Amino acid sequence: MKIDPQKSTDLSAQIAQAIRDAIVSGELIVDERLPSESELADQFQVSRPTVREALKRLAAQSLIRTQRGATGGAFVNRLSFQDAYSQQITTSTLLLSMNEVSFDTACEARYALERACAPLSAQRRTADQLATMRAEIFRQAQPGLTDEAFCASDVAFHRALVDGAGNPVLSYQLAGAVEAMQPLMNMITFTARSREEIIRLHSKIADALEAQDAETVDAALVELETYTRRLAHDVAERRRKPA
Amino acid sequence: MKIDPQKSTDLSAQIAQAIRDAIVSGELIVDERLPSESELADQFQVSRPTVREALKRLAAQSLIRTQRGATGGAFVNRLSFQDAYSQQITTSTLLLSMNEVSFDTACEARYALERACAPLSAQRRTADQLATMRAEIFRQAQPGLTDEAFCASDVAFHRALVDGAGNPVLSYQLAGAVEAMQPLMNMITFTARSREEIIRLHSKIADALEAQDAETVDAALVELETYTRRLAHDVAERRRKPA
DNA sequence: AAAAATTTATTTGTCTGACATTTAAAAGTC
DNA sequence: GACTTTTAAATGTCAGACAAATAAATTTTT
Question: Which residues pair with B66 in a beta bridge?
């Protein structure tokens, strides 16, 4: 963690990379304090603003946190699952919205991953998670619910399903897949009729999870995927020839 | 995209968030040029260094790219799958290394996700992807191979399997799960005997994929997961009582 | 002596102003 | 018209300063 040749890229990017490497390699450990900005400036032979730009890059990735005052400074941050969730969701959302990923492709990925959680969830889901699902199903059945609120509740339901697997790594990985789909789902205007069908399948899933019946959960998820894709297909058709 | 009250946090973080929101919401579109740093400084009523810190935060997340010169500036970046991969891998790796995630938990998540890809891959894998898998199996059988090289080849093999599903969203999601496991896998010193078994299972997977036999692929993945977890368990045992 | 108030030192956050470097377009030259 | 030179605009970097927060050290008060 020292070199900065006069090569091509920004100094602040190079410095950020050097520190990032030190963190990833374990050379810098969690909660360890980095040298002060002035000291870093001396070490890397650059000015303080340049060091600061480097530190802000790292802060944006939640790799460090900073604290003001006498005993303050920049500290290596323990990347929490919560932080990782948010980053993952932002990244996934942008990836989908900027790359003309078809609804079918995104949908296929999402349900493939979710079905991977289903057997574990059938085995381990807690009473609390079941209660969350029931509550969301109840909310989804309210007549006055906006499309946005319905979709948000849908996300919460599936989130509970995934968390039921009791594996934080899985929950983290799925966060992106499930949440990033919401903007795409919002584009489908749900009729009362289609909501009914979705609620029916959600109930089937909740029932099967309660009975620890992995096969029925899987079947219901397949049904839900098929139904969702058909809905999206119909909406696309209707837009093509609105007559 | 305008407000910055004198509230709590850093100005540069607030400005970065304001611009980030504008990008996520679609207010700023791909390849659109942001105002120059001086103009942003005027708009937000802060100095240029503060604006620059905000821009570096966004650059660290690949949300913008900057270009020098007369027609230069900061542009909204199209987040590529490649960029998303790298970020995902860095984040996942740190998440696992910093949070005392057990090998079992990570392994369970990884194979659950990989098994989700298997049916699609059995259906769609290309000849090219099959060839990659065969080549990696061949490499894994070389006697002089270091543990690191063996693990890297292992990653490449599974990467080809995942890519076989022909769904870029799945590949992106899996990148983190598969690659982030490598440091953990490296900690298991493979004996010649265990390599043999892994290569046997890899061959079984490749054969089944070639025959488009999804069930056998799944069975082999389950075998591989079981075997890997037992290996890790044994290593842990041996470390506890090295006598 | 203990507690409270004050001072002090350190560190990050922010500002001002300047210069260097890169780049594309405009102006000039042959 | 093709080539070269100039120019303007933008980011990259630097230096030095002050503000604000914070904890430790010091002083004062009780």
Answer: B74
**Backbone phi, then psi, for A31, in 5-degree steps?**
75, 0
Could you count the other beta carbons within 10 Å of the beta carbon of residue A32? 13
Which residues does chain B have within 8 Å of residue A30's beta carbon, measured at their own beta carbons?
98
**Is residue A243 predicted with pLDDT exceeding 60?**
no
Query: Does the distance separating the beta carbons of A79 and B169 come in below 8 Å?
Result: no
Query: What are the structural domains, with CATH classification, of chain B?
Result: 11-76 (1.10.10.10), 81-240 (1.20.120.530)
CA dihedral A83, A84, A90, A93 (to 10 degrees): -150
DSSP at A33:
B
Lookup: tokens for B165: 């599903």
Whether nucleic acid strand C comes within 7 Å of the CB of B56, the answer is no
Residue pair A108/A176 in contact by the 8 Å Cβ criterion: no
Chain D nucleotides close to protein (CB under 7 A) are 8-17, 20-24
Q: pTM for this one?
A: 0.86
- The Cα–Cα gap between B93 and B89 comes to 6
Q: Please check whether residue A26 touches B, CB under 8 A.
A: yes
Strand partners, A11: none
- With contacts defined as CB-CB under 8 Å, which chain B residues touch A12? 56
pLDDT digits (tens, 9 = 90+) for A182-216: 777 777 766 767 888 999 999 999 999 999 999 99
Q: Please tell me if residue A22 touches chain B, with a CB cutoff of 8 Å.
A: no
Q: How far apart are CA B90 and CA A83, in angstroms?
A: 13
Find chain A residues with C-beta within 8 A of B59's C-beta.
13, 57
Would the Cβ of A58 be found within 7 angstroms of any atom in strand C? no
Do residues A16 and B60 touch, judged by C-beta distance below 8 A? yes
The kind and range of the H/E element at A64 are strand A64-67
